[in-house]
Specification:
By secondary structure, this protein is an alpha+beta fold. It has two domains: about 110 residues, Phosphorylase Kinase, domain 1 (2-Layer Sandwich); about 200 residues, Aminoglycoside phosphotransferase (APH), C-terminal lobe (Aminoglycoside 3'-phosphotransferase, Chain: A, domain 2). It is about 45% helix and about 20% strand. It has ten helices and ten strands. The strands form three sheets. Strands 1-2-3-5-4 form a five-stranded antiparallel β-sheet, sandwiched between helices. Strands 6-8-9 form a three-stranded antiparallel β-sheet, with helices on one face. Helix 5 packs parallel to helix 9. The longest helix has 21 residues. The N and C termini lie far apart (about 45 Å).
């Protein structure tokens, strides 16, 4: 990300944001000072920066995301398309940050600041339970938006991701390797005999922590993985991430299941004719991918967590669609 040093430099960004991009000319007297804070950084993947001007009226913040290539420009076009989409009866169902511009030479996408905090993982909290309803409403609008994209998410390609990692389990967790290898066979069998679903615009990374909440308002973030996929891709991913990896008691698991049911119920209220016959496949797939992530992280007790997710994936794959 060659543009990151400039995007993180307060003087460079102050000049750009204030419209005084000529480095040879001094900033005018009284120009507000700019502080740059690193919010998140993944090497060669992306960086999120917060720009805060100290003005006479108080602090003013905007956010910037630096990414390789034209990924930021692609995200800007997607979010602008969602802002301008005309989905009937969608007022208040999908809240988004408004894109402010894209700085091509830095690969920098600028977005308005959103008040609030990310939804946390306490399954029993009101904010978590309400996030499930907000997610159902948001993704129903996205699915109806008609906003086009250049990426397609194929079920077979997702299954191939599991195949490539299955052998890694054999070296570090033989029981996990057996569970994952068996699951892949069953997933492919179910995919082969199931009917394909409608292809819809898809958020691609729909999880509870992609929402910022403030005074009952939930804002959906991060459209970097937006694409076209079958209806149940988003639904299965969101439900798979509702499952707690380290529940503090049975109440957490019960609360997660309640959120799952309310999410699916609200989604189908808004899109009663949605095709969801592959929902179990996508939910099981995402549970397996979560197990894969824990294998890579190698945190204490990861073997038990990974095996639990794989066992649950088997159970979800052959369960009936929830009665709503």
């Amino acid at each position: 990300m060659p543009g990151l040093p400039a995007a993180a430099d307060p003087e460079t960004m102050a000049r750009l944001l204030l419209g005084h991009d000529d480095a040879a000319a001094p900033l005018p007297d009284g120009a507000p000072s700019l502080a740059v804070e690193r919010v998140r950084y993944l090497p060669e993947v992306g960086a999120i920066l917060r720009y805060q001007f100290d003005t006479s009226a108080g602090p003013l913040s905007i956010y910037g995301k630096v990414q390789p290539g034209d990924r930021g420009l692609r995200t800007q076009k997607i979010v602008e398309g969602l802002w301008s989409s005309k989905v009937p009866n969608a007022d208040g169902l999908l809240n988004l940050p408004r894109p402010l511009g894209f700085i091509d030479r830095y690969g920098l996408l600028l977005e308005q600041a959103i008040a609030g905090a990310p939804v946390q993982g306490n399954r029993r909290s009101n904010e978590f339970q309400n996030a499930a309803l907000a997610a159902a409403e948001a993704v129903a609008v996205v699915h109806e938006s008609g906003v086009e994209t250049d990426i397609e998410i194929w079920l077979e390609a997702e299954l191939e991701r599991l195949v490539r990692v299955a052998q890694q389990f054999a070296y570090v967790n033989p029981q996990g390797h057996f569970l994952l290898s068996d699951l892949i066979v069953h997933l492919r069998n179910r995919a082969r005999v199931s009917f394909a679903e409608e292809w819809r615009p898809t958020h691609g990374d729909l999880k509870y922590d992609q929402f910022v909440h403030h005074n009952g308002r939930y804002t959906l973030l991060d459209f970097d993985y937006y694409g076209l996929a079958e209806t149940s891709y988003d639904l299965g991913k969101f439900c798979a991430y509702l499952v707690p990896s380290n529940p503090q008691g049975w109440e957490d698991t019960v609360a997660a299941e309640a959120a799952r049911l309310s999410f699916l119920r609200r989604y189908l209220e808004l899109r009663p004719h949605a095709t969801v016959n592959r929902f179990q496949i996508y939910e099981a797939l995402q549970l397996a991918l979560r197990a894969m992530s824990f294998m890579w992280a190698q945190q204490h007790g990861w073997e038990r967590i990974a095996e639990t997710f794989l066992v649950m994936a088997h159970e979800r794959l052959y369960s009936r669609f929830p009665e709503l």
